[in-house]
Amino acid sequence: MKITTTVFLAVLVAGLSGYYLIWEKPVSLQSRKPEPAAEKVFTLAQGDQTTWLMVQNQTTKEAVSLKREGNNWWLEFPVSYPAENLLVEGMISALTYSNKVRHLSLEGQQKREYGFDSPKIKVGIATQKDPRPRYLLFGELSPVNRAVYAWWEGDKDYFMIPVELRSSFERTVYSLRQKKVFRSNLQEAFWIHMKSADKEHRLEKSGGKWYWTLPPLAGEIPPGKVSEIISSFEGLYVKEFLDGQNLADEKFGFEPQGIFLQVGTTGGKAEKLILGKLAEGKEAVYSVREEDNVVLLVSEEHLKALLQKFELTFQEMRV
């Protein structure tokens, strides 16, 4: 290569490099500046936790309020009853993980325009560090982007949120109530007791093995059989709650020495379900948890399957 060609190429490369460093690089760096982090709908301070939650649904005309008691949630209105912890925590997580889609100033008649004067859903929330409730109003649907107008009551600005966030608060009282009949960890069961109209059975755990103690049978109960019985207990759920009922009403058929299912767990805790008459047309049995005194409807099919499981296992053990 000629020396003149070499010099020309060197000058060209130097020039291009200088142009890039002076003009192109700053523009490139500027264009790559990280965008500001999206603002969350609700933020919990470090070490803080939600202690109270309220949801008003204008469409269904239902309102619920819940309070935290230790690690569990409890419905305080319209009924006092244990709540579904995962569902309540899921609603709170939906607030803390969701981003505001847009952030705009609220002026004049916009409260009515965006539906804040009569919100579809109103959510109240309080925390351990800030016990004063704040209220989030879900207004009308935005005509674009599958979003909902939202506003923290008292703020100067409103914003938009994904429509799915509003949907997560469209809950009925029934959906928020704890529907598991036996709420303890039944994998820690220490004894199981069942009494029907004409039979009574009791299983007890000793030295890591299960035995049939009423009526007494020799030999260990196969672990698989015990697991099946426990699974049947875990599969009992409330179909319907009948609040404010008189347990002494004859139509329920509750008797002091009547039919029941009972489980005891390590630590001395015991749960007892008293069974009454068949609820006509409901395919369910009137039942009551001894600890709650609320009349429940529990699946007739599932209860029959559980009682049959006891009897079949007992007959197999007798052979």
Q: Give me the Rg, rounded.
A: 31 Å
Strand content: 35-45%
Taken from the alpha-carbon principal axes, the silhouette is elongated
- Count of helices? 7
The helix content is 25-40%
Q: Structural class of the helix and strand makeup?
A: alpha+beta
Counting structural domains, the number is 2
> Separation of termini?
103 Å
Cross-sheet strand order for the largest sheet: 4-3-2-1-6-7-8-9-5
Low-pLDDT runs: 1-35
SSE topology string:
HEEEEHEHEEEEHHEEEEHEEEEEH
Averaged pLDDT, please? 88
Major beta-sheet overview: 9 strands, antiparallel
Per DSSP E runs of 2 or more residues, the count of β-strands stands at 18
In short:
The protein has helices at 3-31, 85-97, 110-113, 163-167, 173-176, 223-234, 300-318, and strands at residues 50-57, 62-69, 72-77, 81-82, 102-105, 121-127, 134-141, 147-152, 157-162, 189-195, 200-206, 209-214, 216-220, 238-242, 260-265, 270-279, 284-289, 295-299. By secondary structure, the protein is an alpha+beta fold. α6 packs antiparallel against α7.
Structure description:
The chain has 319 residues and is α+β, with helices and mostly antiparallel strands. It folds into 2 domains: 50-176, no CATH class; 186-318. It is built from 7 helices and 18 strands. It has helices at residues 3-31, 85-97, 110-113, 163-167, 173-176, 223-234, 300-318; strands at 50-57, 62-69, 72-77, 81-82, 102-105, 121-127, 134-141, 147-152, 157-162, 189-195, 200-206, 209-214, 216-220, 238-242, 260-265, 270-279, 284-289, 295-299. The strands form 2 sheets. A 9-stranded antiparallel β-sheet has the order 4-3-2-1-6-7-8-9-5. Strand 17 and strand 18 form a beta hairpin. Helix 6 packs antiparallel against helix 7. Residues 1-35 have low confidence and may be disordered.
